[in-house]
Design goal:
Layout lengths: L2 H18 L1 H4 L3 H22 L2 H8 L3 H8 L2 H23 L7 H18 L3 H9 L7 H11 L22 H25 L7 H19 L2
Helix pairs in contact: 1-6, 3-4, 3-8, 6-7, 7-10, 7-11, 10-11
């Protein structure tokens, strides 16, 4: 899918979301983020059917009446969150990652930075989306399946497309090397999440994370590049 088409799809989705959820989107950003983080945390932990709106409003510090005032019902809120975050990720991905850069480590460096920024703001973001992809609740499955079919055309797997394989050592199985690179930084991201959750401020130490990231790049580049 071209970047132009992605942007057009995002614009259409945003206009639709603004129309349906204008009361919520007109809230100040701090309150929006508080409600969003409470909701995605419960949905990620318990799944759609078992996530309680009572628990969500308690965590968010709002009344149940306000939650339904903003979203209408639990299903609308869940699907809004899925659409909202996928748009954010695609937007950040295309805006901040240079896909013309064919060195996989330079691309990954950009992707890790984007992911750290998003997780600092929404700690349960990727857990929520991972759970949503596997969600089998009858109440939302049909709508999610339609969305996943469309969104698969713009998935973040593009990070690994059209990279310069000539940079890798000739004696390597490059596909296995790419998997190792992917697994390394996925696990490193999970470690960063756990550190942030255990810290008093729940924020990433960016300087420390960037330094460690560079150390991983150095090790992997020495192992895999010519």
């Amino acid at each position: 899918m071209s970047l132009t088409r992605v942007v057009n799809n995002e614009d259409h989705s945003r206009k639709k979301a603004v129309s349906m959820f204008s009361k919520f989107l007109n809230l100040d950003q701090e309150k929006q983020d508080r409600i969003i983080n409470a909701a995605i945390k419960k949905f990620a932990q318990k799944g759609y059917d078992n996530a309680s709106t009572n628990e969500i409003v308690k965590e968010a510090g709002i009344s149940k009446g306000l939650l339904f005032h903003y979203f209408g019902n639990k299903k609308n809120m869940y699907l809004f969150l899925f659409d909202h975050f996928y748009e954010i990720i695609v937007d950040e991905f295309y805006k901040k990652i240079n896909l013309e850069e064919r060195d996989i480590f330079k691309r990954v460096r950009q992707a890790v930075t984007v992911k750290m920024e998003l997780l600092n703001k929404y700690p349960d973001l990727f857990n929520f989306l991972s759970a949503a992809v596997m969600e089998d609740s009858k109440e939302v499955k049909l709508e999610l399946d339609k969305r996943k079919k469309q969104l698969s055309k713009t998935n973040i797997g593009k990070l690994y497309e059209d990279i310069d394989l000539s940079l890798f050592r000739d004696d390597l199985d490059v596909q296995k090397a790419l998997k190792i690179i992917f697994w390394t930084f996925e696990q490193f991201s999970e470690e960063l999440i756990q550190r942030a959750k255990q810290s008093p401020t729940h924020e990433f130490n960016y300087d420390e994370a960037i330094q460690e990231t560079e150390e991983y790049y150095e090790v992997l580049m020495k192992a895999f590049y010519k």
